[in-house]
Amino acid sequence: MKPEQFPEDLRPHLTPRPEGEMVYDCLACGAKHPSDQLLYTCPGCGGLLLLRDLQFDRLRRRPGDFWRRLFDHRLMLNERATSGVFAFHEFLAPSIPVEDIVYLGEGRTPVVPAPPELAREVGAAFCFKLDGQNPSASFKDRGMAVALSFLKHLARVKSLGTVMAVCASTGDTSAAAALYAASLGGAVKSAVLLPKGRVTPQQLSQPLGAGATVFELPGVFDDCMKVVELLSEKYQVALLNSKNPWRVLGQESYAYEVAQQFDWELGDLALIVPVGNAGNVTAILSGLLKLVAAGAVDRLPKIVAVQSERANPVYRYYRQPLGARSYAPVIVRPSVAQAAMIGDPVSFPRLALLAAEYEKTAGGPSFFVVEASEQAIMDCMLLANRRGLTICTQGGECLAGLKAALAQDLITPSETAVLDSTAHALKFVDFQNAYFDGRLKDEYGVSTRPELANRPRELSLRGAPEPSGTMSKADRELFVKTAAAEIAAALDLTPKSA
Q1: Cα gap 52→249, rounded to integer Å
Q2: CA atoms 24, 25, 26, 29: torsion sign
Q3: Cβ-proximal residues to 400 (8 Å cutoff; 6+ apart), any chain
Q4: Would you give the DSSP letter of residue 187?
Q5: What is the average pLDDT across 298-315?
Q6: CA 253 distance to own-chain centroid
Q7: CATH class of 111-135+252-450
Q8: What is the pLDDT of residues 149-168, one digit of tens each?
Q9: CATH for 139-249, among 3.30.450.20, 1.20.120.80, 3.40.50.2300, 3.40.50.1100?
Q10: Main-chain dihedrals φ then ψ at residue 128, nearest 5 degrees
Q11: Three-point CA angle 249, 251, 256, nearest 5°
């Protein structure tokens, strides 16, 4: 639609203008720092930072219905700046001018209901939000779009020249960082640090293809994260992990989209989210709280965070009694949900703060943490695939988490669960094939369920000629006839009547 075709009261607001007063808010000492600089920790005490809009109250001057209508109408607006996550500009990163917005097609990923047979098998209605349909095939593009938009803006207004961006990754962050940095030409160069042997070949190919400098470090993600943290403290680099609060802002768009896709009625929903580095679940909590504060929604959904039992520090923390909780990192073991292989989530302080605020706003228990076994993660991924839902291992982790939450009565069958499939399944085909071949048992402790295994069948073609480019017509006809007959017998096909 063209702007003149929109309702008159919305036309002046279709293209957002820079506004608000964004500051870095230290979670440890409460200090506030201007947002016109790159900060990842508090300069005063080293605490973790959140970005806050000190003028957020201006959004309350308009009724919630105004924001719902504006965001819904922007779906029909053919304007690049608001085509992706910045459709929610006023809630997301209101200080970034539209001319600095980086858009590669991120956001607006579909919500796909589980087929009835699968819903009955699980015991509740649920759906998957397929965030693997983002440009680099994972949810990380949401945060990267905002982080790189801010970096582009900062480089322009401060004439920074070429910026070196760095990140540690289990695969998806590196793909997104490299892709979005490459889109800015020579303005931003990227370097990524990966745990050697802990990233799938498909994920490794992505930053290499986008031209990033890729380093492989012996160890796990937590080791890589410590290195890039030190680089960001000692050198002039831009850190693109979720320790970067602009990244977390971008991932809030997931919450806004879910609200919009359910017509802004969230009270009967439960959002199932994998934890990983805790940036995504933190962002979702933050986004939902903003929606309530602005009056765009009147009820909050339940949030169920899921961790693999092989990397579960957040689960262990919330298993302790309220008032006596103590956080401690864990040593991870290999997990098929590779993004979950984080024993010391960087965003945990943000998560703990926002989860408490969330339950206070919701008026009762509404944030839960469950864990899933490696066997359940793989079985659930393949079960969903067998029912028509192409999900990643993190999606399998969420489905296993939904089953655990139902078994523990944390959510009820009357609620609709929205599960986050964070990446595209094709990034994890090696795990699927290893499952089929029985090669996951030793390292991951996963046994192959025969009913979920699937391998290609080789045709014997007894009596048929060897295929070649010089086959005679008669030989080719015999070759085709023999192959068709063998396939028909294997599939028990019924011949057509004469």
Answers
A1: 10
A2: positive
A3: 306, 372, 373, 376, 377, 379, 380
A4: S
A5: 97
A6: 11
A7: alpha beta
A8: 999 999 999 988 899 999 99
A9: 3.40.50.1100
A10: -110, 135
A11: 95
